[in-house]
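Objective 1b: paired records.
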Amino acid sequence: MPQTLSRVDGDRVLADLHALRAIGAYKTGVHKPTFSEPHMRSLRWLADQLPDAGLDATIDGIGNVLGSSSRPGPKLLAGSHLESQNYAGWLDGPLGVIYALEAARVINCDPDVHGAVEVAAWCDEEGHFGHFLGSRSWVGALTEADIDAARDRSSGRTMREALRDVGLAGRPRLTVERGRHIGYLEAHIEQGDRLERSALAIGVVTSIVGIWQYRISFTGEQNHAGTTRMAIRKDAGLALARFCVAIDDRFPALCGPRTVWTTGRITLDPGAPSIIPGLAEMLFQIRDDDPAVIEGLEQTLRTMAAEVTAQGRCSVTVERLRTGTPAGMNAGFQDAIEAASVAFAGGRSMRMPSAAGHDAQILSTVMPAGMLFVPSIGGISHHVLENTCDADIVTGAQVFVETCRRLLEE
């Protein structure tokens, strides 16, 4: 076992995670949406820790926390995010930030390692105001117009108002310094059960799926629920329900081995018990790591919409709201994670795609990127029952730090 890692402190890793868990605690999880008081307190907590890891801390004008090193040699960027989904789990995001912090503590004062680990906590990965706003800002893919348009999905508060309220308005947004970093490494709970089911300790992420989102709208005819005969109704809600069933009937023959789809929200207008809905809308999402599969499924959606419209009762439109290009993780980073898992996890690892989005896919557009997973108990995430056993957390930290060391030494 490499002697350079003898100072990895599993108790410190767990204590840091529990310190963040106490901020915004809710039942067994946390509630700290972007720019809430618990979220801002978490950012300040991290900024206070970074100097002990040899890093200068900055909270920038979009809410990213960045720790930079003046140590000579190559720099590896590592991190994740600190806000949570509403009333959700305590490890989604903070695990990767604390692993990065621990790597910086161990490596940045080690005379045998040339270079340094720098730490990032990206703002709004969970999408309260948009998707990946912090990491997109850092790579130069977020415009001022994007910020102007961003609104909190729960309260409707604009991002400009939120930045002003938490004291970040007017601060510059930091952006990538091209060539500074050899790459970006992120750790995360799996948010699935493949590792636990296979009795494995580490997931070596091969790719991150693209996420495509659609608004599918149905226009019928609003009318009285009691006096309108069934034979002449133009019920937009019923058309939507039948469309959902038709998707499940037709997609399986066209999808890939890892394709998933979800109708996440349905709204009926006017939504009254005695009125036939004249309008209905569903938000629909497809995830896959093969763009060709997605293109075929999207075309099927549009064909289905045309078929329903041709029947004459209700018209259907399909509007694409979001396009997500799949991101491949760097092969060298995958090899380094796998080698580190041999040293600290007995080789109990597997290569696997990520079915959830992560900041690593944004960072991969400007530098090599890699991800590792640790098991999720019961595969649960985005819920207060989200958890990972302490032994798996510590093993993951050891593998993460060893991966950082290997990447800096290459």
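Objective 1b, second protein:
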Amino acid sequence: MRSRRQLDLHAASFDRAADVYDAARPSYPADAVSWLTDGVEGPVLDLGAGTGKLTADLTERGLDVAAVDPSPEMLRVLRQRLPEVDAHEGTAERIPFADAAFGLVLVAQAWHWVDADRAIPEVARVLRPGGRLGLSWNERDESVGWVRELGELMDAGSAAFDDEGDPVLAPPFGPLEKHETHWVQALSHDGLLDLARSRSYFITKDADGQAAVIQSLRRLMREHPDLAGRETFELPYVTRSYRATREG
């Protein structure tokens, strides 16, 4: 378990890589977004919205969406893409909206950064009674051999969080439901390198460490039989999504 300081340092690193994050990271599969938003009434908050990957999916569905993120640079990209979205700096522990403002709060690729003891009551505050909290993660499917090797070369094991288990949500949230979606992201070789460059455990390395990772990934793509000689390839993902209703 990493310290709060380590978590904060890794979370803050995205300010240095907002554009490459936006270019390289995938969005979320339609099946997962549909499950998270099914039956929702009222405005939606994309909390930890980053550059607006999920925000864009939500607005395309005609939902009334606001966005919050702690990174000014990530919000810069989001505002360029989605100028109509009400976007603010903030965190899950301090959400800059009024009580009971939303019918749904979504946190995609970000719940592992938060202090859950403080975030859960704050999210509950901005949700209407009967509103929903939804969490989602895109994760590489490392049951595939070359994808597992990719993670090892990117030094993903040095990440500042451990999200192998399901999240735990305290009251006033009710039972947690889970949904999984298997899908693939089409990537070029440069796209895969940018994907590595967008990860916090890459951004926080020194220049020599970053160069070593890129060199190793180039070798993997040049020599691995599933990748060698191909201009593009498919990176398999599993998207884990969760939802729980605010009771009371």
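Residues 3 and 88 are 27 Å apart (CA to CA). Confidence is low (pLDDT under 50) at residues 6-12, 158-162.
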